[in-house]
Structure prediction request, 233 residues.
Amino acid sequence: MRKLYYSPGTIALAPHILLCELGEPFEVIRVTVAENVHKNYKTPEFLKVTARGLVPVLSTDSCTLTESVAIALHLAETAPEKQWLPPIGSDERARTYEWLAWLATTVLRSIGGVYRPEHIIDSEELYPPIRAFAERRLETFFGEIERAISPGSAYFKGNDLGVIDPFLLVFYRWGLEIGIDMSDFRRWKQLTSTMLERPAVVEALDAEEIEIKGFPSPETHFKNDEKQTRSME
Prediction:
């Protein structure tokens, strides 16, 4: 059985959604925050799972994977019937890799600048300007995301769920949590609303006990009874 190690509201939510979409049994294990100056996940117990001490981690019978994009691509490639990825060798497939890499590196670094400036520099007096600079960059990046969403489509590219869409939900939620004015990103808001209508998304949010600000809290109308949830103490 697959096991997903996660912390609520992190980038781990994206592969968590994809696991729920698969509809197969899996276990989710909540990783506790370490009692250290950086408040990271490097507890002795979790470091036995991954020496990197970062979430998410996907453990299967044959391997242990880190990095959200690697996990998402692995899940997509092991379930080709879902068609979460464009055809192999196509320009669309290459663009999908490009977008995932950009989101998980360039954009995610700015998210880190807002939430965890101590991971960038060990000087508290510089935290406010780092946060302000990161927020300005995010506003620019978010505008690029908005323009890239296909007009009139339900999802990022077309009317079918793709591997990028769960990541866009995570970043939209972060924008709201940070306090960025997301009202101008109308296509992105509609995409988020469409995602929240999916039972698998509701299931993942319910499991992590998180919400999306400004959207109704949907009732959980799908449950994978074979999914197991526990915390790593």
Notes: The longest helix spans residues 91-115. Residues 221-226 have pLDDT under 50 and may be disordered. Residues 2-82 form a domain with the Glutaredoxin fold (CATH 3.40.30.10). The two ends are 21 Å apart (CA to CA).
